Amino acid sequence: MPNFNLLPRACSLLLCLISYGLAADDTPNTIKLAAEDNWAPYAESSGIGLSHSLINSAFSRVGIEVDSIVVPYARAVVMAKKGIVDGVFNLVKEKSTQDQFIFGKQALFSATASFYQNKQSPLNVESKWQLPQNTKVGIIDGYEYGDELSELPNIQVIKLSNHNQLINLLLLNRIDTAIMYDLVAEQYIEQMRVSSEIGPTFVNHTGQVYLAFSKKNPEAEHLAEMLDTGLSALKNDGSYQQIMTSTIETAHHFSDKLKP
To answer: Where are the domains of the chain?
Structure first.
């Protein structure tokens, strides 16, 4: 004789299995991302770098494959805003971006940016708030440099396309200073062999760098949660620190090889 007391439990188990299957089906197997091409060692034109390693590894932990296209940063941001891609690499969370994208709870990493100068034409001030009237400050068009940049009273912002242009204009004294993220600046300054002429002065800010998801994607919040889960897994087993250490050591080794 059948045990009808077991029927409610069996039905409940079946509903759980169906719900789990639907949830699994809702999770995409592949995510399409736009990665910038000019921010070594975080993201390079060849499609490698710290951000690639962290994002690919984190999503692999939750069964998602990453399909990244490498484009200039400003284009990557636009593509994410329009929903052409599911997300964009290396967005700094600040007032200008937090309402335009979906962010997870965990940043990929933090990155510090400083003001750089021509050592033959020093700024002779101790902070960004002391910059003299009409100071020409070079930045990369589309990058985020902290909420305080727009509050600096005495600066004229000059927007350029890449770091080589920033450094060349510093060498020519066409700009008074440039803001660059420190690990990135180190790569380009050594590559151009101008470490004796160009160097940092004082810190601009430290930003929390994220993979930001498109609000056009109805699965954006879920994808952000999946990334958080993957990043937590990397941190729990030590893989996150291994990736960070390996990338930074490789970057410093590259710079050392370029020194005369």
So the answer is: 30-110+208-258, 112-206
Residue (of 52, 58, 143) closest to 105 by Cα position = 58
- Residue-wise pLDDT for 114-129, tens only, equals 999 999 999 999 999 9
| Assigned architecture for domain 30-110+208-258 | 3-Layer(aba) Sandwich (3.40)
Token pair 């940049």 is found at 149
Please check whether residue 20 is in contact with residue 37, taking contact to mean a CB–CB distance below 8 angstroms: no
CATH topology of domain 112-206: D-Maltodextrin-Binding Protein; domain 2 (3.40.190)
Give the residue among 176, 125, 133, 177 at the shortest CA–CA distance from 155. 133
Query: pLDDT tens-digit profile of 70-93?
Result: 999 999 999 999 999 999 999 999
pLDDT at 26: 55
Say how far apart CA 224 and CA 226 lie, in whole Å.
Answer: 5
- The structure's pTM equals 0.81
Query: Which distant-in-sequence residues (6+ apart) come within 8 Å of 252 by Cβ?
Result: 186
Return the higher-pLDDT residue of 217 and 21: 217
Interval 41-71: pLDDT, tens: 999 999 999 999 999 999 999 999 999 999 9
| Unique residue bearing structure tokens 């937090």 | 98
Looking at the chain, the number of H-run helices and the number of E-run strands are 8, 11
DSSP sequence for 49-105: SHHHHHHHHHHHHTT-EEEEEEE-HHHHHHHHHHTSSSEEEEEE-SHHHHTTEE--S
